[in-house]
Batch of 2 targets.
Target 1
Amino acid sequence: MKAKGKRQKVKVNSWASQQPGLECLHWRLLLRSAGCPLTFFFLLPFSFCLVSAQAQNARPPMLRDVGIEQRLNEQVPLHLTFRDENARVVRLSDYFETKPVILALVYYQCPMLCNELLNGLVSSLRVLPFDVGQQFDVVAVSFDPKEDPALARDAKTSYLKRYGHRGMPTGWHFLTGEPASIERLTQAVGFSYRYDTRTNQYAHASGIMVLTPQGKLSRYFYGIEFAPRDLRLALVEASANRIGSLTDQVLLFCYHYDPSQGKYGFIIMNVIRLCGLLFVLSVGTLIVWMWRRERWLRI
């Protein structure tokens, strides 16, 4: 599924929650309408809108502009420069050409969320049939401009050890950069974050992106744990089927990527079609076998 420029972030109009007395009046009307199905179902959609508006306003001001807005099929600016874990100046294009890339936006001194994200990613990668550095690369970029290559080097050492001896160390890249490059990259992938001066920490969302070898955003996954099946299918799709097996192609036929959920879902109709096709092939094979057997018996 390709949805060029499709953006999943939804802004909720909070007008209803700002009107004095409207909330109480609404719930009273909803309760009184319970005995009248027509009125009840008329007011029910408004109830969900009001609840959504209240949830939006309940978020702390620091978090209202924090999130991930999907930019599926959009191009990431590969000319941006960063520094790798060895303090060498590199371009993003250095990691894109023949293999898909898993991109993680983190900061290495994060007290909790970023570490959990990278731990969850490594745990999923360990059970994949693909190896980092061979079928795909992993690029982690710090969005804290104050962090230096020494922190990136320590992070790479730690996660390489956690990953084990599979794959190639050259497939892992931990980058730091200047504010301009960081801002361009985070904007391009739809990653919004804020710095809290009170706690000296960043408020940010948690997720990873899968990019094509050409640097286009193919898939987003949210949270700190990622289903190995979803990562596997995303890498196969991002590679334009250059990696993977016949089993992966069958799985892609049966599962469909849902951008709103950030994961693959089961497609029952495709499974029914596949079962129907297998049934027809089986019956056809049986008929041919019986026809040939009958001819052989006559001879």
Note: The chain has two domains: 16-58, 67-240.
Target 2
Amino acid sequence: MKVNSNVLPITEDMISWSKELGIRIIEKNNTTILDCSDGGYNAGALFSEVCMGGLGTVGFTEQKIGEIQFPAIQVHTDFPILACLDCQKADWQIKNSIGSGPARCLNNKENRITKKSNENYAIIALETSQQPDRKVIQQISEECEVNKEDIFILYAPTNSLVGSIQISARVIETAIHKVERLDISVDNIENGFGTAPIAPLSDSNQEALGKTNDAIIYGGSVTLHVKEMDDGFQNLVSKNSKDYGKLMIEVFKEADFDFYQIDDDFFAPAEVVINSKETGEIKHFGEKNPKILKKSFNMEM
């Protein structure tokens, strides 16, 4: 499946409706850049769907934290591996930003289904507050082997509404990535559904990084429909981490602000429900932790 071509219509819609969506369109070095920094809910949903290669649907719901109803994302996919691991996984370091989206399937990063494919377009989403420069464009062009005029770059900082939305929309991806790290076959997973609160806005990217991750770690819920049950699924939730109970910003500081020094088990949803299609069996692990979410979101009164 050519996922970059798949999301091209979504990207073109974002350009056509840029004024209404609060998106600024920039042409630089023959590349089209979509600055989503000031976008709202609709821009956040479209940004998230681009990250998933157009193979996931992102909508909105509510989640109660204490006595307050918070906006939350609701995301589902019937292509969980291609959408979440091949496209949405955020592990592509591009200068001072993290890249994800269907362009991952064109570079030399590992991807499970899509081998390095031959597509005409590269569409990438960056989590950054800095407008991509010529060096970023050149790196993407070289690693994806695509002409600069056929590259579309979406970007938004962590401390923006679009940033909060797109991170919460990764709730299924965190569960599937954990399945992979536990050495359970991800091919066992057929469908995914998830919800997570949308973290309130912060005045710094560092503070936003803490809140957005806490939204999944302490408020994220994922349902996976699998072919068969595996005992390892009980280890999917964040409660199994040695750092559980701490705020992400605290853990980040303890790791000397090195994201890659944080316990991998911490990056997981608060709860998961596993439904076996083979037997109809349902198992539930973990639980949401509104007490810590209230502390993270500065809701203590």
Note: Residues 205-219 form the longest helix (15 residues).
